[in-house]
Structure formats: structure tokens, C-alpha cells
Amino acid sequence: MTNREQLHEELRRLAEAEDAAGFAARARGVHPSDVSDVLAGLDEDVRLRLLRRLPPEIISEALAEMEEEEHPEELLAALGPERAADILEELEDDDAADLVAELPPEAVARILSGVDEEDRADIERLLEYDEESAGGRMTSSMVAVPASATAAEAIAEIRRQAEEMEDFYQVYCFDERHRLVGVLPLQRLVVAKPQTLVREIMDPPPVTATPEMDQEEVARLMARYNVPAIAVVDPQRKLLGRITFDDVIDVVEAETTEDLLRFGGIPGEEQLAGDWRQAIRSRLPWLYVNLLTAFLAGAVVYFFQGTIAQIVALAVWMPIIAGMGGNAGTQALAVTARRLALGMIPVGQGLKLVGKELLVGLVNGFAIGVVVVVVATLMGHTWLLGAVVMLAMWGNQIVATVAGAAIPLGLDRIGVDPAVASSVFVTTLTDICGFVLLLGLGTILLLP
Amino acid sequence: MTNREQLHEELRRLAEAEDAAGFAARARGVHPSDVSDVLAGLDEDVRLRLLRRLPPEIISEALAEMEEEEHPEELLAALGPERAADILEELEDDDAADLVAELPPEAVARILSGVDEEDRADIERLLEYDEESAGGRMTSSMVAVPASATAAEAIAEIRRQAEEMEDFYQVYCFDERHRLVGVLPLQRLVVAKPQTLVREIMDPPPVTATPEMDQEEVARLMARYNVPAIAVVDPQRKLLGRITFDDVIDVVEAETTEDLLRFGGIPGEEQLAGDWRQAIRSRLPWLYVNLLTAFLAGAVVYFFQGTIAQIVALAVWMPIIAGMGGNAGTQALAVTARRLALGMIPVGQGLKLVGKELLVGLVNGFAIGVVVVVVATLMGHTWLLGAVVMLAMWGNQIVATVAGAAIPLGLDRIGVDPAVASSVFVTTLTDICGFVLLLGLGTILLLP
Asked: With an 8 Å Cβ cutoff, is A33 touching chain B?
């Protein structure tokens, strides 16, 4: 057992023995995310009884660290509005806002009525922003000083403001009209002489965010400029809040999950740890959409039933040609969709990219077509049937790579998230084209 | 045009006018990642002439910020060993090591021979670690003080060590045997009284990494514990280096790309911005693997040719049943693979997860099967053919969801990265099972 597993085991035992005092004492030296894991693993009743007896400062951070899927807001609500308010007061405003954001408005109002006025105003302001925007992610707790202050004055201000603040790495500097004009790394303040002016040692802010900016965009800026925090400013460049790197890592992880699930054919929200009912709700609608497109491919085969009845060997090649088209299309799609997501396709370069995929399809299609002809010959097919199979495979590979690039680019152009629907469009197209090529050429060239 | 586009335009014009002095002056106030973008967009000759004339401190950061795919190491090598050495000396050791890591060993040796001894030793040490490990990602530049020092002594030490250091947010504290015993956030040092002992205001390190640890694991720890940097220690807990959040954001992005491409059927390395030759090299081998599995599915159809010849309508249902199985399997696979990647599946929970997917397949398969029967009836199929189609669809949906969970779990258990091969295994299985169910049931129940 690792140290962490031992620690979890120990906390679990204290919880199950209903030793709230012992649990609190042990939890105090421990990272809140570990406490959070232990809480998430407890039986509901045990957990509720424990939470009723633990001091608010231990519950607060543990709930803030809990995964969304564990529904920490429901645990909070279950403790009653007064205790919930005590817990919120222990948190940074952004964590507090995130924690209650999923609750119904009446419940939020009931809890917030017990929070002291200043904190309540901060939390309410944050709740107004879209949860996935910079405004929804930012905290308004930060240290700001006038650029005209001295280093000594800045340190005094930090002492005054920083008492109850989470980790911070920079001091924001504003001018006489309260506009953000600089960022002062703490390391520079530490070594500055007391009389030095903040203005002389601050940097211009390398980048700022607006409250409406999408959280993914904020994450990209932060990665690009390697900054531990980004200031959020209004149109007059007045400081509204800051977003720190740890929020951004969470965002990147959540967005990755979303992209991967969409690519896998789950465009709605599916909680990874959700139960089977939740999985059915999120997946069945999309399966019905897929069924519609599958009927389209089936209709093509239906149209050519006469040909298949005469040359049954074509039925053997149907899944091979359609399937290989799907594979090649998905490859092109994965590369193109990822480039789009990373903002790696400059305006006007779309056509060049489709051209690249055309070349890839030409070459790969030929390389696979040659193998297919050899196999067809070994199976004793006529050379004409071999030629039909080869041409259908080659043509479908070209359609696949071109569509794999063109479809996400087109969807992106008209403002649709290319991750959602691209995959089903591409494989439907390769199914249909594969069947039309194989059965169409077969009808023209092979029927007597 | 945004401010950034204007800036890029301006720098590009200076570069193309071969005004190196003007470019250098303008670039000085600008973030290196912007300079890097402009350099990446220039013609090769223009860029080389410019790089020959720019001061090393401007080139160094711009090359360090450049995407791997732009091959900054080749630009560095093209400048000759002496100039390359000057440029490396301007960089943090980890950035310098990353920059030369892709060059052939002789070229690295030639360049490093011009780097001063201390820097060279640091870079050479970092080059020994696997590039994707914590050792390969860490920098050895950091500030460390004895835990027994006072705040004033710590500040003096920072003044001494921090001169040429990138941003840092914490001071590491060691005991008399040089073991890491604490982490001191700068914010606390700023407000500490000069005589306060470091020991009294430091925190125990919430988490540390070993040099062999995989970079993804480091990223997860950092996200989990919300720390801007993680110390890398040896088995005696001696401090070797630190990894900062900005490296981790890059790691998460790169791993996301890798996961998505693998899921899309590109298990090798494909550079997103690579040309068509590179795309063919990375994709064709996997298409050949897929072709092999497609032949397996084709072989099933081959075996049942006699049945198809008598009941051609079965050929119409083949792509529908196989395709829907592939879709359901990919959904289950996406959820399971992502849970595995996030370490969200506790030991011993695998079977429970397969059980959940079995339920999903049962319900969704039935829901789709009902629609399929209705369509079959509308097409004028006999009720027995309708039943065959329904049963094949239902059965294949169950196989799909179970395989979509079981295959990645199984691969993970035997130590194979589930992202690589899962997708082809799942769709091959759903193709084969779909055909066996449809054509097998058809042979048994429908043939006279």
C-alpha cells in the first residue's frame, strides 16, 4: 500500500467509527483532495453524519476539490442553509460560486442569505457569468496596488490583503484611473529595495482576458504565454478578477474528455462515472441519428439487390471496401479536427489541407488496392471483378480522406463544432460511396 | 486586424526588409511566442539570414517557444556550433536540453563543447532522462535554502540565486542532510518578519515526483494538488529539479493530440502540420492492419454466400447491423478509454463497468431493434426475416457495448496502451458478430 492509500484507509476507519474529532485532527495536515476522495467513498449516511460534525474549514476545501460527478453541491445542501453558509464563507469566492452554481436558485438564495454581505456580493456577481466563461472561472480575490507605490508600501498592502488568500504569484498594478497597467512577480518584490517604485519593477501584463471569453481560449492563452494567472479586465481595462493555472488544467482535462466522447459518438453530456441509465440517455439519441444514416447506406444496397443476386461475391467485398473507407476517413478527420481545435489552420489554408488529404488518399488507396487485387485473384475472381474491387477501393479511399478533411472544415466555417457530427457524416459518406462504386461498377461492367 | 496580427505583420515586414536591428528592437518588448510565430512563417532563406544577425538572447527564447513541428533544433544547428552555443547559454537548462534533444548526438556534442562548463553539465544530465519522464521535463534551476535559515537569509539567497532565473513561485527548503523537507510560498516570505525561521513558515511538500515518473502522471498530480510546481527528488529525497505548470499544460495538450489520433486510427506519430508524405508513412501501416481484420469480416460473408444468394435482402441489412454495432462499441470504448486515461477506474471495478455496459447494450439494442422491425415490416419482409434482423441487431449491440468496455480494460491489464488498438478490435468484433448473427440466424431460420 502506498502512503496515500494508507492515509485514505486511516481516514476511512475514523469516519466509519464516527470519530469526527479524530477525523478532523488527522485531516488537518492533509491535502483537501485526499479528504475529498475519502468522503466520496463513504456510505451516504456515514458521510452525512460526519459532515454534520466536522468543522466548516475542513469540509469547505474538501467539497471544493470534489469532482462534479460526486455532486458536492448536494452534500452542501443536505447540511442545511446555516451550516452551508458557514462552509461557503471559508472558501474563495470562485470556489464558493462553483459549488452552489448547480443548485436551484431558491436553494442558493437560502444559503447565501446566511453569508456575510461582502462575500455574498462577490459570489452573486460571479454567479451571473456563464460557468464556462472567464467570468465564471475567475476569482475576485487578488492583490492589487497602485503602480506609484513603493515596494515597501506594496508589501504592506499584501500583508493587509493576503491574510486569507489562496496562493498567488503576482501583484496587479493599476494607474490613477484604476486601469491595469502592470504585473509584478512576487520574486521581484522579494528582492526589491523598500524605496523602489512598483512602476520600475513591474512588467506590462503580457495578456489579459475579458469576462465573456471562453474558458478554452483562456487556457490556450495561458499555455501560450506561460503565465500562472491571467487578469480579467472590463472594456475600460479595470481589473475584475484573475484566473489561475489550476483552474485551467481542470478546463483542459474537461474539454479533452468532451472532445474524445464526441469523437466516439456521444455528442451530449455523459458523466464518465455515471450509471447505466445516464449512459442510455446520452447515447441512444445519437444511435438513432446513426440508424437513419445507416438506412441510407442500406438503401443503396437495396437498389442493387439484383446485381448482388447474380454476383454474390460482391457481398463479400461490401464490408471490406466500406470499412476501409471508414478507417481512412476517420484518420483524416482526427488530424483535421485536432488542428482545428488547436487553432492550427490559418484562414485560407483549408483548401491546401484538402489537397494534402487528396494526395494521401490517392497513394494509400492505390497501395491498398494492389493488395486487394492480389487477394481477389487468389480467390479465383475474374480479372474484371478484380478490377471492379480495386477501383471501388481506390475511389472510396480518396473520397474518405478528402471528406475527412473537408467535412470538419466546412462545419467549422458555418459555425458548427466539427467534433460533434463529423464522424457520422464521414462514415456514412464512405459507406454510401463504397457501395455505389462497388455495386455500380459491378452492374455496369460485370452483368451480362 | 487585432493588435497581435498588427504586431506580427510589422515584425514580418522588418524581417523581409532584412532590417535585423529594427527587428531586434521591436522584438525586445514582445512575448517570445509572438517572435517565434513570425519566425516560423518566414521563408527559409530570409529566416536564416535574420537569425545570423539577431542577438542570441532574442533567438533563444523564440526557439524555445517554437512548436516541435517547426523543428527549431534544425534552425539552431544551421547557425553553426558557436552561435548555437551562445544561444543555449541564454536558456534555462531544461529548455536548452529540449531544444537539442532531437539532434544527432555528434551535433549535440559539437554545440555543447562551446557552452560553459556548468551549464553544459546541467544540460548533459537532463539529456540522460527519457524525454517524456519527469527527469526529462524538469529544470535544475531553482531556489533552495536550509530550513534552519531566517527569512532575511532566505531573501538574501534568492537575491543571489534568482538573478537569471525564470519565474518561480516557491522556495524549496532542505534539512541538514540535504533532504527536501518543505516548500515556502513566496507570498509568505514577502510578509514574514526578517528573523522568522523558514522552518516556521514553510509547508510540508504536498507532493513530489521521481525522475522516472511519466509526464502524464506529473500533470495529474499537479492538477490534483493545485501546485504551480512539483519538486523532483531522488530516493533519498534529495532535490534534483522542479517541473512548472507551463510545461504541464504543454504535456496535457500533446497527450490529448496523441490520444485523439490513436482513437482515430493513427497509432504512430503524425505531426499535425506534416506534409502528405509524412501522413502516408504514419497511416498506411495501420490501414494494412485494418485490411487484415476487414478480410476476417469478409471471410464470414464468404462462408454464407449461399444464404445471401437465396435471400438477397440480408445483404441490405448487413451494413446496417454491422455499422450500428460499430457505433455503439465506439461509444462504450470512448467512455472506458477516457476513464482509464484519467485513472478513474479503481482496481477491481472493471467487472462492474462491463456489467453497466451490458445493461446499456440490452436497453439500447432493444430500442433500436424495435425500430428495425417496424422498418422491416414496412419493406414487406416476412415476420420471420424481421425477427432475424431484430435479434441480430439486438445481439450485436450487446456484444458491442460489452466489448467496448472489456477490450480496453483487458489491454490495460496486460500493459498495452488501450488507446492504440482498442478501436480496431471493437469494430472488427462487431462486424464479425453482426454478420454471424444475421447470416447464421438467416441460414438456420429462413432457408427452406
From this structure: yes
